[in-house]
Write a structure and sequence with these properties.
The chain has 656 residues and is mainly beta. It contains 7 helices and 41 strands.
Length: 656
């Protein structure tokens, strides 16, 4: 019998199978709560706290995998008011299986927000139990004020006899995968490159081999043994001075050998990364990656998830002419009794593993939640335990490849961003944005989708990383490059400006209307090649100067604000701000203001470009998305933000 965690968020209660739950026997709790009684009837009462998004008490309830259940309980609320947030509001209940919400409701079990004051209401929820120990049920108030009580929680198994047999058989088949077996084999130098262990071919000592939980090293003759191996795969960690002949993994069996072709040690590694292709095959972009790799040869290519048609990509990515690795994305999980990652494993093998190149330890890890289906119950815990061991056995510099950015505050992200684990960089996708930041001194970079423009206005592209002399650097390769062949027309009239164009679409009301008329036909008076990219940002004009901001989605060396003479196009000053600016600045005559993707707002002197002040908008500092909206100047007031708007003091004092 599986144990299913049932969590009651903010104000909670749950049920035992065919029995009442003792709501006073909790396992985990957060926030302000109390256990109360009315006569002999036990209840839980939980209060909101000002700075706590959700308060909860957690209970354990036994459930059988794949069985159908009916949960019922009663709840009442007092003065429940929502907070200004896009999150859930009010009291309710959520059934969650490893990150996949399969039911959400509130009063009467409907899709409603329970707000205000209401007396006891019965909630009835029917659901099918997943094959997981990590599912939990949440009676929830998120981002709200007030309190809620819960009582009379019951759980009834509705599964019929025929259904029970099928459910029990499905659970048994899944659990067979994790019956311990003894495995052994050899990692050898495949001198003739045929992928087979031939007479005279020597073993390679010190190579790590893993079943996804245990990690062992080969002995002096290249032999390894795992006495109690579990899971679906066995994989070897590629040594620095070799490449696999064939795959780095195999389906778990009692005897597995790994063929490696040794080469001279290397001091430099080059790799390419794409993400969020979400298309039928890699054809729309793989040729561009190959073209870039012909100019700067790559050691490997990583697809950081949200692949699209996995079979189609497997076929077309083989043209990359370099080893290809895949990280599973949240859209790469598909419904399957064995777990949402089963289809991914069929095409690409293990969800997580590691390999070495030029003194750099590379780790591919999977995110712990899917959108369309939940992962298997084993994936999360096994991956975390394996990663701890991998970190311990490989103390040198590391780079992490994962679909979700490390700014997502989950267990793996916390491990990766811990300085003691010596991670120098992380490469990811998911946000459909191209941006690079430093978190805890670690370079964290995300790429734009390779076949379409990004949500932050960056052009489509992919990433190239270079590891050399103990340092790592990145650059964005954008297949879409605009070049102007137009020449300056000496017959063009001198530039004449009307009123200032001080911000995006000229004014705070964004009317985009100019006071002057253009003389036709237009002629090119001057042009200027800016450092970095100017993509969705437009120049602004004030008192004879043109101001522009640039982005640099590699290491932000060319992310700057610059000023040009409006009549001649001469560069008056350029200030590197160190973070990409992907939207239009604003000017008040004395200062020019701009906001970076990491939530930093700058004020610069219009005369010399000196940074007068900068401030970080806390909401955007470490969130999953960047700050993509332009700053706005209105009646001596400065505003910045995207889905959260803040007012800033133009003089550089604390945010208003």
């Amino acid at each position: 019998m599986k144990r299913i965690v049932i969590a009651l968020l903010f104000v909670c209660a749950a049920a035992l199978s065919a029995l009442d739950i003792d709501l006073h026997k909790y396992r985990v709790r957060q926030g302000k709560y109390e256990f109360t009684k009315e006569g002999e009837e036990k209840m839980v009462k939980i209060y909101s706290l000002p700075k706590v998004r959700s308060c909860y008490v957690t209970f354990d309830v036994p459930l059988q995998p794949f069985h159908r259940y009916e949960l019922s309980f009663e709840m009442r609320g007092n003065n429940i008011t929502r907070r200004p947030s896009k999150s859930l509001f009010g009291g309710g209940v959520t059934f969650n299986a490893l990150g996949k919400i399969i039911y959400r409701g509130s009063q009467h079990g409907m899709w409603k927000h329970a707000l205000g004051t209401f007396d006891w209401q019965k909630v009835v929820i029917k659901f099918k139990a997943p094959n997981t120990k990590e599912a939990y049920l949440c009676c929830e108030i998120a981002d709200a004020d007030g309190w809620v009580e819960f009582r009379r929680a019951k759980l009834v198994d509705l599964t019929g006899e025929k259904e029970k047999k099928a459910a029990d058989k499905a659970a048994e088949n899944i659990n067979k995968v994790f019956n311990p077996v003894k495995v052994s084999g050899k990692v050898f130098d495949d001198a003739n490159g045929n992928g087979k262990l031939d007479a005279g071919e020597k073993g390679i000592a010190g190579v790590q081999v893993s079943d996804g939980l245990n990690i062992v090293k080969t002995d002096a003759s290249g032999v390894y043994t795992i006495d109690k191996a579990t899971g679906k795969f066995l994989f070897a960690v590629k040594p620095d001075n070799g490449v696999f002949v064939g795959k780095h993994y195999a389906v778990l069996a009692d005897k597995v050998n790994f063929a490696v072709k040794l080469h001279a040690p290397r001091k430099k590694a080059v790799f390419y990364s794409v993400n969020d292709s979400e298309c039928g095959a890699a054809d729309p972009f793989i040729g561009q990656v190959i073209s870039a790799a012909k100019k700067v040869p790559g050691d490997f290519l990583v697809h950081c998830g949200d692949i699209g048609n996995q079979k189609g990509h497997l076929d077309s990515m083989t043209r990359a002419e370099m080893p290809v690795h895949y990280a599973i994305g949240n859209h790469d999980f598909y419904k399957d009794p064995a777990g949402g990652e089963t289809r991914f494993e069929k095409h690409f093998g293990p969800v997580y593993y590691s390999f070495n190149v030029a003194g750099l330890h590379c780790i591919v890890v999977g995110y712990l939640g899917g959108v369309d289906a939940a992962p298997s119950p084993q994936l999360g815990k096994r991956q975390i335990e394996w990663l701890k061991k991998d970190f311990a056995l490989n103390p040198g510099p590391k780079v992490i490849f994962r679909h979700h950015p490390m700014r997502f505050n989950d267990v793996i992200a916390k491990m990766v961003l811990d300085p003691k684990n010596n991670v120098v960089a992380t490469v990811s996708g998911h946000t459909h944005a191209a941006q690079t930041r430093l978190i805890n001194g670690i370079i964290t970079t995300e790429g734009a989708p390779p076949q379409m423009a990004a949500v932050d206005h960056a052009p489509r592209g992919f990433l190239r990383g270079v590891w050399e002399n103990g340092k790592i650097s990145f650059e964005i390769i954008n297949p879409v490059v605009w070049t102007s062949k137009a020449a300056v027309d000496k017959s063009a009239e001198p530039v004449k400006t009307g009123a200032d164009w001080a911000q995006f679409r000229r004014s705070a009301d964004r009317n985009g209307i100019a006071d002057t008329r253009l003389k036709m036909p237009l002629k090119l008076r001057w042009k200027f090649k800016a450092p970095g990219y100017i993509w969705a940002s437009s120049p602004i004009i004030s008192k004879g100067k043109v101001f522009a901001a640039t982005l640099d989605d590699a290491m932000a060396k060319n992310a700057c604000v610059l000023a040009l003479d409006v009549k001649t196009g001469k560069l008056l000053w350029k200030t590197v701000v160190g973070v990409s600016i992907k939207h239009t600045p604003a000017v008040d005559g004395k200062r020019v203001y701009a906001s970076g993707v990491d939530g930093t707002v700058f004020a610069l002197d219009v005369n010399n470009g000196k940074i007068l002040w900068k401030t970080s908008i806390p909401y955007y500092a470490n969130r999953s998305d960047g700050l993509y909206g332009p700053v706005t100047w209105y009646e001596n007031r400065l505003f910045a933000g995207g889905d959260h708007l803040v007012e800033l003091d133009p003089n550089g004092k604390n945010p208003a």
